[in-house]
Amino acid sequence: MSDLTFEIQSHPAPRSAEERAALMVNPGFGKVFTDHMVTARYTAARGWHDARVEARAPLQLDPAAAVLHYAQEIFEGLKAYRTVDGGAALFRPEANALRFRRSAERMAMAPLPEDAFVEAMRQLVSIDRAWIPDTPDGSLYLRPFMIASETFLGVKPSSEYLFVTIASAVGSYFKDPTGTVTVWVSEHYTRAAPGGTGAAKCGGNYAASLAAQAEAASHGCEQVVFLDAAERRYVEELGGMNVFFVFDDGTLVTPPLSDSILPGITRDSVLTLAREAGLNVKETPYTIDAWRADVKAGRLTEAFACGTAAVITPIGRVRGREDDFTIGDAVAGPVAQRLRALLVDIQRGKSNDAHGWFQKVF
Ligand code: PLP
Ligand code: COI
């Protein structure tokens, strides 16, 4: 257990109920921020200290802060949901805390104690509870992150870190929450290589994905599909989501975890729910050639992306330099819809939580 305690300094002038309501009418994703943030500092001499809940404000950083030069940065993404009884709950926050620690270790950063991470989430959700949308697709997206704050230009792990969590009232990630997305298979760019940082949630992975994401967007696609870096054959994941394939014999396939795939908490939850629902679940490598052929042969009936931001989003169409195929009728399929309902009902406290995933905040 960590002995880090959070000092609460409420915002002296939070936005009014009217301002908040206007901002939350159609929040989109990651644009509407709450009144507070959580911060904590680490130095090699003092360990983690100075933890606070305070008014959201710009950060002050020395221009020589290590993060600005060598990108020692990690983040997480998790949501607080309005529950049917008017309260709020987090979904598996300790899983995000664990992944945050593993990301820190991979990036040679000081790990934040997992109980302090979860406590930071609970504090922010509590103080900014009025910002949790009360809509079917709405939630409060929490964005914890950590940066290397030592003022030093030598290339080495920083000896000082700043942990921050901000929160954003969000609707659905994609424009049409009931629709499907079109994905672009990146042939030239890869996301992560064996031995690299693909399994860590570090900002650098996303910076490296942006040229591919821009290429996808220029072809009218919402997300990019990354293939493995060694052979450029195996489907790994999307720019910001894991991927699943559904077959006509009731098999559900997702690529196995490796050091080039982010171990998604939604992915892990979907695997559990799908097994319980009687699907034949396989974590096995799957190639782009097989994807194309299985769709053509009618064996593959659905594919979907999953993640905290995307929840479960069906993939309707796959494009690439040599590809353009449609999955089924490019509408949300029954397996994706069923798994989504099972997941969302647990997240919102509407169904029995047999796995201890649902964590009530108030
Ligand atoms: N893969 C990548 C690259 C991601 O950015 C995300 C989103 O966090 C995921 C997968 C899904 O992870 P999770 O389900 O934990 O949100
Ligand atoms: C998430 O689902 O939390 C993500 O991180 C995806 C994207 C917004 C980066």
List the domain count as a whole number: 2
**Relative strand content:** 25-35%
Low-confidence stretches: none
Q: Give the overall average pLDDT.
A: 97
Tell me the name of the CATH class of the largest domain: Alpha Beta
Q: How would a textbook summarize the main sheet?
A: 10 strands, mixed
Helix-strand category: alpha+beta
The CATH architecture assignment of the largest domain turns out to be Alpha-Beta Barrel
Can you put this structure into words, describing what you see?
By secondary structure, the chain is an alpha+beta fold. It contains eight helices and 19 strands. Strands 1, 2, 3, 4, 5, 6, 7, 8, 9 and 19 form a ten-stranded mixed sheet that branches. Strands 10, 11, 12, 13, 14, 15, 16, 17 and 18 form a nine-stranded mixed sheet that branches. A hairpin with a 5-residue loop joins strand 6 (78-82) and strand 7 (88-91). It is globular and about 60 Å long. The model has no long low-confidence stretch (mean pLDDT 97). Residues 77, 240, 307-309 line the site of 2-OXO-4-methylpentanoic acid.
Map the helices and strands:
Elements: E1 7-8, H1 17-23, E2 32-33, E3 36-43, E4 47-55, H2 67-70, E5 73-75, E6 78-82, E7 88-91, H3 93-106, H4 114-127, E8 139-148, E9 160-170, E10 181-186, H5 203-218, E11 223-227, E12 235-238, E13 242-247, E14 251-254, H6 265-276, E15 280-283, H7 288-296, E16 300-307, E17 311-319, E18 324-326, H8 334-347, E19 358-360
Parallel strand pairs: 1-4, 10-11, 10-17, 14-15
Antiparallel strand pairs: 2-9, 3-4, 3-9, 5-8, 6-7, 6-8, 7-19, 8-9, 11-12, 13-14, 13-16, 16-17, 17-18
Bound molecules: pyridoxal-5'-phosphate and 2-OXO-4-methylpentanoic acid (COI).
